[in-house]
Amino acid sequence: TDVRETKPEEDHVAPLLALANQRMNDGHLLEPDRDSARYYLQEALHADPQSAAALDVKRTLASKLMEDARSAIDRRDFARALFVIEGADGIAAAANIEVLQNLTAAARKQADADAKTQLLKNANERLLQDRLIEPANDNAKYFYLTLKQLDPGNPALASVLQDLGTRLTAKARRALILGQLPAAKSWLDEAAAI
Fold this sequence. Notes:
Blueprint: H1 8-25, H2 37-47, H3 52-74, H4 78-88, H5 94-128, H6 140-150, H7 157-177, H8 181-193
């Protein structure tokens, strides 16, 4: 008879790998902490570091983690991308992790630049719409101050400030002509605040 000897480690590895594959299929690559594909794979590798089946699962998991990280980067979900990249440590190749870290940094830099561009665009649109100080959080002053806080050296700030100051002063002058002293003072206070 052909009796094959199996190592006790192999008996222990197969169910762990089955769980790892099941968790991958369910989308639980890294979470929950002690019930994820990564957890079961690490347990299998701990039991038998040379298991060919475990190394195959490791390659599959690495690929899925890289895909998940790229998807998060594309969605600009940088917290998720960094979480997945960190979780891929020890599973994916170091060079692949470095590529994803660089992609994340570049995408984050681009997202910051896009956000600043949008703030400037919003400030200029609100100036043209004569929405200088209202409504709250959607006016020229708000977008100007937000951009100034994020990017104090932005060269476009000077022209926005000039236009906003000119318009606020014109509102104060108009209120004075109409004899509306409290309104004039309010407009001048707004101009002074910026």
